[in-house]
């Protein structure tokens, strides 16, 4: 066991950087600065995107809350309107029944009045058959001058 008792599958390879070293610190800063600045720029953009998404989500949540409250209010108003419609319908039926009853009573009173009038005229005629009927204002106006 040449490799210290390890199997061949567990051996890892490493890459070694053989590029030329930086000639100066200034050169290293110039190379790595671009990478660092790029990371900062992307981090800043990412934070802006996240902030915009959070704001948009808050706006959406507020709008949804507002719409749900409006929907609940509309449901309550609809239920109230249904109850009022039911009450008005019941009142209308009651008024129609009362109107029918009043019309029936009026018809009965008219027929009773007509019956009483014809009975009284017939009674007057029989009791005054030998007398001349009284002169009415109509009969006076129809007399020749």
Automatic annotation (TrEMBL):
Its family remark reads:
Belongs to the WEB family.
Its name, as the record gives it, is Uncharacterized protein
Its GO biological process annotations read: chloroplast accumulation movement; chloroplast avoidance movement
Give the source species: Asparagus officinalis (Garden asparagus)
The question of whether Coiled coil is a record keyword is answered with: yes
Q: Which UniProt keywords apply?
A: Coiled coil
Give the region (Disordered) as residue ranges.
104-145
GO CC terms on record?
cytosol
Q: Cross-referenced SUPFAM superfamilies, in alphabetical order?
A: Tropomyosin (SSF57997)
